[in-house]
Description:
The structure holds 2 protein chains of 2 kinds. Chain A is an alpha+beta fold. Chain A folds into 2 domains: about 1-50 and about 140-320, Multidrug efflux transporter AcrB transmembrane domain (Multidrug efflux transporter AcrB transmembrane fold), CATH 1.20.1640; about 55-135, Alpha-Beta Plaits, CATH 3.30.70.3400. Helices cover about 60% and strands about 10% of the residues of chain A. The interface between A and B is large, with 94 and 84 residues.
Amino acid sequence: MGKFSRLGNDLYNGRRSIDFVGRKWLWYAMSAVIVLVAVAGLTVKGLNMGIEFTGGAQYRVQLNPSQVTQSTADELRRAVAGTGVENASAPVVTTAGSDAILVQTEPLDGPESAAVVDAIVATTGIDPAAQLSQSEIGASWGKEVAKRSLTGLVVFLVLVSLFIWAYFRQWKMSVAAIVALAHDVVITIGIYALSGFDVSPATVTGVLTILGFSLYDTVVVFDKVRENTRNLRETKRTYAEQANLAVNQTLVRSINTSLVALLPVGAILYVGAVQLGSGSLKDLALALFVGMAAGAYSSIFIATPLLVQLKSNENEIVLAERRAKARRRNAADAYATVPAFSEDMPMRASDDGVPDDEAPRPTVAAGRVVRADGATGRGRVAPPARGPVGLSGASGRQQPSRKTRSKRGKK
Amino acid sequence: MAARGARPGRTLIAFFVVLAISYGLVAIGGSWKPELGLDLQGGTRITLIAKDSPTPESLTEAADIIDQRVNGSGVSEAEVTTQGNRFVVVEIPGKSRRDLVDTVKRQAQLRFRLVACSTLRPCGDSSISPGESPGGVTVPGVQNSPSPKSRAPFSTVHKNAEPSSEPGAEPSDAPSQAPAESPFGDPLTWMNNPSPAWVKAFNAFSCPSDGSLPLVDDNADKPLITCDDQGVKYLLTTAMIEGTELKRAEAVVPDQQVSWVVSLAFDRAGTKKFTEISRALFGTQDQFAVVLDGQVLSAPTMNGLITNGEAQISGEFTEASASSLATSLKFGALPIAFEKDPPVETVGPSLAGDQLRAGITAGLAGLILVMIYCLFYYRGLGVVVIVSLIVAAALTYSMVLLLSATAGFTLSLPGIAGLIVAVGITADSFIVFFERIRDEMRDGKSMRVAVESGWIRARNTCLAADTVSLLAATVLYIFAAGVVKGFAFALGLSTIIDLAVFFWFTHPMVSWLARFSFFNKGHKYSGLDAGNLGTDRVPVGGTA
């Protein structure tokens, strides 16, 4: 824990920093691969829509009142799910009134239906001719519901873009946040398709939660970005650096929040998928788990680098960048590359016959100095001169002449 | 900021008073367990059977309208499906209520007609004797209703004259010969000069004696002979205003009255026609009638000139029946009629019994992990997180109880999972806050200063982020249906509670704790010691 805390402090004051913004192409590539896998899963495997969306078949099983209990219903559910018929893998089984149990499945063809009927008969021992009736049911989540939900989604996206724009006063933040959101939703839906779980209303609920959560997380990170970049002129750093610092400073928060949010969902997912194996619990938990993880990832690795990239050609940002560069150049130690002498110093830097004292110097070629890279001021690298260095004190331009006080004002 | 010294304690006390009040309200409500949703607890299934064989489109349309009606009041998460080609199945959580059955099955065909004759007020002098000519005032071909309906031939009128005393003794279904071919012209004229064939039919008609609805074919383009629930029979003109011309319908108790009414507001066209009626009837003893599904609800006279398009339907309403009628009217009439007494049965939960228990166990296990993590990482402050989460849970539970008592809120599995997930968002506020405090202390501020300056920054972040969540919840609530609606409600609720706890519990709590030297001197287990902050020295402020 001590190390983690120390890391928190180092991340805060920038002593240690992970280059989230600079290595953006790496993160983009990673996300692109995941998104491609998700889209492939979506197109190849497709979503397996549940009864609520497709409608299906309903079997009404007439039983003695003594048999109509929740445990019989549970048994029937297991039996029907155990038939191996794909469309009957997630049946809805309920007691109805005091003398019947309803079994609902997705649409079945003849032999599949026969298999389900066999399973029902084997479980309850009824006479299929007299006590079993079959009917068709429509979708409870018809087109109308889907249309209204989509309208709601569009309205939400528009409103939330406007809100982010109004709060941060930067429409580019809205764009970055929405891109990150789309990234999360595509990944969530794709992985859901790959998992082969049925899409139930619980799934839709889960995906909708992601909308809120992903944007929530992005807003928290962007808030810090805005705070850090408010006074670029004073901080004398580039936008990219300040944004990166912001991500690093919120990193501990992001890790903590993700853990706190994912632990309960993970527990529900484990119980739902591994121990129970069916029901809407696992649908919801899977959508949430993937979506929240993607949401936390995307606000750090996608939204912020994208924001920096979007803003990189803004006038102010370019100026700040130039200022920071110039400042860094000036701050560099001019004599940094001169090696200090020590006893065990090798007397020859290399075997190519270059005299020792010339080795670290900038190479002079055709009157032009090749600059040494990486004058960060931290290493021992001397900054290169701007032009050919003459013997005079003037570095190729008019120098201010400082006269002694007694000579000032006189010609 | 002046009286900051006294504030945290006061805010905390106020917060706990509010919490206590909410539980007091719950105690008055009397139920300590929330209503569970269809999937967890089961509910009532109403199977509506269409009268004729409707087209699949109109059946689906009817199902949609019923869906809006049952879910219109918010959060009960009822399910509506079509079944076969003439069934609509409505599943509602909880026990069956009579008014709910009425709400779903009522066709809600509302029409305003004028009264030509009634039992209490015989037909006008000139037209009471059958056989007299209808007079030359009717304007042939003028029809007041928007579209002629393609219904079965007109079948309202009795042929047999003998009064029947049986309930539901129907007017015959056979089309009557005389009235069918007459054009009815302007209802305002027709009212005073009803055609003799209709008057004859009216005189022959008799109402069921027990006040039940006579079976009539309520066709907007034809006059109507029907009764109200007192057994008074009416001869009514063609429809003047239709239910589609309503803008608004709600159940209210008007000022200075005690009984419930359904207040109506017409749209522009409806207002115009209503004004016309009002002009014509004001000052006379002529009545107009509000007809719902063929039955006269009330037949008032015009006591004033009403030109603003506002009207009321009064009657012997209870709150439940008034709001049921208002809901039915609000979402429009069903395109098809349903059989009278639909089968109502209770259904069991659709989820296996172990799902709820497993889900809650898993959620709790996850929460305990969260608490252990918080304690481990934040130590002393971790206790604040845990207490805050417990307080938030208590507040949420009381709100859920209150809302299930007042707004019919039911907890389904997604709802419960949503509440557990909300822990993430709730805890995030605290994490943002604490990380801010620690950052401020890393900058060299003392804890008491760090708490306040960290608070100001964390507050803005959390407000912005929670606004996004609230926005999501609100939009989803307005647009989505069924389960999603309930979920959106739960999300919005937990976000608001998060803000309330964050503002009125966590912050004052931390401000208060900052007075103790355990925290502000950076005790080893306070979560704010040097080792935990990762700095070398804890800034200690003045005289703490």
